[in-house]
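Per reviewer request, we include the raw input and output of the structure prediction for the construct analysed in the revised manuscript.
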Amino acid sequence: MFRPVNHQKTALAAVEQIEDLILKGVLRSGDRLPAERDLAEQLAVSRPVLRDALKLLEERELIEARRGGGTFVADLIGPIFSEAIIQLISRHPSAKSDYFEFRRGIEGQAAALAADRAAPSDVKRLDDIISQMNAAHEAGDRKAESLLDVAFHHAVGEAAHNVVMLHTLRSCYRLLENGVFYDRGRLYHQPTARVDLLAQHAAIADAIRSGNAEAARRASEDHIDYVQKALATAEDLDQREYLAGLRKPKTD
């Protein structure tokens, strides 16, 4: 991951390389940096120079040192919405349509860019996740399926190779992981949902692998449309079940 600093061996040169890895999403929030000696060797700088670099990165709030635990990339994924607006949205379910509209647009664009820009390692990562999804599906492991679902969308965002889009999507998916906008378990209770979602993710991966940007965009948009419709169906069923429960049978 780290390369020797080939030009002026200054702390700033080391800082620029580490910043670049963070910006491009190679180093993620919570990742631990190599031990000081190892990192200095990989960057080909002295340990005093490295300490100056790490100090500057810490001042910029990009890394944090944990006593006795090493140095880690700071939590850089800020909230895409404030807690107040999240709670407001949760009290007004109609706002969910705006959330899906946002995801449909940005994820469709990400999938199209991924089809044009994905490196072989990006495609392999997508294929690996699809393989794990198949295994989790066969095992009936819904928790694993849920985690892999988020991992898949992360991988598509990374394959788009647009750093602004990457960090925006990561912030958006943090809400998805926390179930802010909908309960994924409710989606999986739909009779064919697990099979349908698996096929949809595979279609997105296939289009990216083949380099077909329009097919990737369409597959991504179709996926979001399906999720939105399936959740609306589940919520409608819940409401009808609630009303049915209120209608107690008459007794003589």
